[in-house]
Structures are given as C-alpha cells and as structure tokens.
C-alpha cells in the first residue's frame, strides 16, 4: 500500500467523466422515460376509474329502462284485460238483444200463421157450410155472390163469437 | 507482496494498473448503462432497461431514506454512478488477477517500472497488473475526496451560515472535535471500501495456495465477495447521501 497522488487524481477525474457522461447521455433519458411511464400509468388508472363510473351509470340506466318496460307491460296486460271484459259484456248484451228480437219475431210469425190459418179455415168452413147447406136443403143454391156474402157475414158473426 | 507497476513520466508518478483498471471499470459501467438505455421504451422495456430501472428505483429508495426525495432528486444520478462504479469495480478483481514476475528492470513505454529498478541478482518482484480498482486505497481515497468536497460545498451553498455554526455546537469548545468528525468521514469511507475489497483479494490469494483443495473454499469466498462488493457499494452510496443530507438540511428542531 502506497499513496500515489496521481492515482487519487486519476480516480477523481475518471469518476467525474463517468458521472458527466452518464448523467448527460443515459440517466436523463432514463428518468424521462420512467416519468413518462408514471404519467401513463396514472392516466390509465384515471381512465379505468372513469370507465367504471360510466359502466355503473349505464347499468343504472339499463335497470331503469327495464323497470319502465316492465311497468309498461303490466299496463298493457291490464288494459287488454279490461278491453276483453268489455268486449265479452258487449257480446253478451248483443246476444241478449238478438235473442229477444228472434223470439219476438217468432212470436209474430206464430201470430201471423195462426191468423192465416184461422182465415183459411174460415173460408173453407164457409164453402163447406154452403155445400152442406145445399146438400141438406137439396136446394139449388146458386153460388152467387149475394148468397156467399150472406154466408160470409153469418160466418163472421160465428167466428167473431168464437 | 505484489508491487504496483509505477513509472515516472517527467517526474510524475503514474500507476499503470490503476489507470488501466479505472479505464476498464468506467468502460464497463458506461457500456452497461448505454446498452440499457439504447432502446428506451415506455410500454415495452427491454430486460436491461428493466434492470436499470430497478437500480434507479433502488437508489431512489436509498436517497429517500436519507433525505426528502424532492430535495434529493439531483443526487440520484450521483448515487447511481457511485453504486454502479463501485459495484463493478469490486467485482472486476474477483474472477482473476494478472501478476507478472520480473527478474530485472522492466520498461513500459520507454519508462522503467520503479519496483523493478535496482533489483539484486537472483531477486524478483511480482507486479500486479489486473485487480479491483477499489482494492487500491488511492482510488477509494479519490472517491471519498469527491464526496468530501461535494458535501462541504453543498453544505456551504445550501445551508449558509448554519454550516459554519454547526462547527461550534453545542459549545465552541467542540470546534476541534467537529472538524475531526468532518475529516473522519471521508477517511472512514475510503478505508472501509479499500479494506473490504483488498482483504477479499488477499484472502483469495491465500486460499489459492491450498492448491486443488482450494476449490470449495474459493467458491464460498467468491460468492461471499460478490455479496461484500454489493454491500460495500450500497454502504458507500447510502453514507454519501446521509452525509450530504446532514450537511445540507438544516434541522429546525435541533436549534
């Protein structure tokens, strides 16, 4: 071990040059890149947080939309139920009215038929009674309208009484 | 005992091995760092860049343990250069060393190596050419002097009158003690680093004398020397940062 002053000087100079070169050409760039990465990570984390917030808001929105859709569906079902009930009632009322009408018509038809039958019967009885009378009386009864009118009048009196 | 290949050029002593080893050490560090920053990338760093960023973060941790990282930003480059240079220097001498035996005067670049001058007939000297640069006290002293000058300069520049006031605290009678304390710092730095690495290399030389038996011991000791080399580089760097912090940061509560 020996102290050599030039060695001390050389080591100082060598270290100084190394420090100068490294900090000028290497470390400054390296630090800049590391700083950039730090910023990048921060930015990405910010973005991730923002995206998560957006996702939460979106989910909330979707939930609300779903709820409103469900409500709407409920409303539609209710309304359709009401409508169908109304329609059933309407149909029932119409059927009742129709039935009443048909019945009335039938009654009227029966009445008509009956009247017609009575009328027919009456005319037949008229003719028959004239024939019977002619046979019974063996008398030529002319089929004049005068006599027939008389008979008819008589029959009318009989029918009206019956 | 190995001699250093010292020559006199115009009356100036030059230790060729020290110059050589400083050159190798600086070159290795420079090439390593330049390779790691060759293709810098923010998103896809190479393995070497990752390693260098780890070293930067490690040094940042060292600096922040001694002082506020905001104030310590300018010293990160210094700490990085220190730790890389010392670590590489410590490891250089581990795998091998180059020793030549001289039986007569040896000349380099036309100058006679001092140790080989005036050799008696039949005598010989062993000249150590390749070793750890930090196994030379002159080089560790150079590093320590850099730290000493830097910390006092920064203390005067950033701390002003508190720097000088510090020498007469707590009482003016402590002035010599404080001066010794200040001077002891670089001396301790230089001797600690030199002694650890030098002792490591001496022990390797001693173990090698065991012949073939030396292999297991050598393996263990080489491994331990790597650890010691890293540890000493770390200690030198953290002490530098602590000294700078002591000198530059004026603690209010202490006054």
UniProtKB/TrEMBL annotation, chain A:
The keyword Transmembrane applies. Residues 52-120 form a coiled coil. The chain crosses the membrane at residues 6-27. SUPFAM superfamilies: F1F0 ATP synthase subunit B, membrane domain (SSF81573). CDD domains: ATP-synt_Fo_b (cd06503). One of its GO terms (molecular function) is proton-transporting ATP synthase activity, rotational mechanism. It holds the Pfam family ATP-synt_B. This is ATP synthase subunit b. It comes from Paenibacillus etheri.
UniProtKB/TrEMBL annotation, chain B:
Keywords: ATP synthesis, Cell membrane, CF(0), Hydrogen ion transport, Ion transport, Membrane, Transmembrane, Transmembrane helix, Transport. Its main location: membrane. The keyword Transmembrane applies. InterPro entries: ATP_syn_F0_a_bact/chloroplast, ATP_synth_F0_asu, ATP_synth_F0_asu_AS, F0_ATP_A_sf. GO terms for cellular component: plasma membrane; proton-transporting ATP synthase complex. GO terms for molecular function: proton-transporting ATP synthase activity, rotational mechanism. It is a multi-pass membrane protein. HAMAP family: ATP_synth_a_bact (MF_01393). NCBIfam families: ATP_synt_6_or_A. PANTHER family: ATP SYNTHASE SUBUNIT A, CHLOROPLASTIC (PTHR42823). This is ATP synthase subunit a. The gene is atpB.
């Amino acid at each position: 071990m020996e102290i050599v002053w030039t060695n001390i000087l050389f080591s100082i100079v060598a270290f100084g040059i190394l420090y100068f070169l490294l900090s000028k050409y290497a470390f400054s760039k390296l630090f800049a890149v590391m700083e950039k990465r730090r910023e990048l990570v921060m930015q990405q984390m910010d973005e991730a947080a923002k995206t998560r917030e957006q996702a939460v808001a979106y989910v909330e929105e979707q939930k609300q939309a779903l709820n409103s859709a469900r409500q709407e569906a409920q409303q539609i079902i209710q309304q359709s139920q009401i409508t169908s009930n109304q329609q059933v009632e309407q149909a029932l009322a119409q059927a009742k009215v129709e039935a009443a009408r048909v019945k009335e018509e039938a009654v009227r038809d029966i009445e008509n038929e009956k009247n017609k039958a009575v009328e027919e019967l009456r005319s037949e009885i008229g003719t028959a009674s004239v024939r019977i009378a002619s046979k019974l009386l063996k008398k030529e009864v002319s089929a004049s309208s005068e006599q027939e009118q008389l008979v008819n009048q008589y029959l009318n009196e009989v029918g009206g009484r019956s | 005992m190995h001699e250093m290949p010292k020559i006199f050029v115009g009356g100036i002593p030059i230790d060729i091995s020290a110059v050589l080893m400083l050159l190798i050490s600086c070159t290795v560090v420079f090439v390593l760092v330049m390779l790691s920053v060759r293709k810098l990338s923010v998103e896809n760093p190479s393995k070497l860049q990752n390693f260098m960023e780890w070293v930067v973060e490690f040094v940042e941790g060292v600096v922040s343990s001694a002082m506020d990282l905001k104030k310590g930003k300018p010293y990160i480059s210094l700490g990085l250069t220190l730790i890389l240079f010392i670590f590489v220097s410590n490891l250089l001498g581990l795998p091998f060393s180059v020793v030549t035996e001289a039986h007569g005067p040896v000349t380099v670049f036309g100058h006679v190596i001092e140790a080989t001058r005036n050799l008696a007939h039949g005598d010989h000297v062993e000249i150590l050419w390749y070793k750890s640069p930090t196994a030379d006290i002159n080089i560790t002293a150079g590093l320590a002097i850099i730290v000493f000058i830097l910390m006092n300069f920064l203390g005067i520049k950033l701390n002003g009158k508190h720097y000088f006031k510090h020498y007469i605290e707590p009482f003016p009678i402590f002035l010599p003690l404080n001066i010794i304390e200040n001077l002891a710092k670089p001396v301790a730095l230089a001797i600690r680093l030199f002694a650890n690495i030098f002792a490591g290399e001496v022990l390797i030389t001693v173990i090698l004398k065991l012949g073939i038996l030396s292999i297991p011991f050598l393996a263990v000791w080489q491994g331990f020397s790597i650890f010691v080399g890293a540890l000493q580089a770390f200690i030198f760097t953290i002490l530098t940062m602590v000294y700078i912090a002591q000198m530059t940061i004026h603690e209010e509560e202490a006054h």
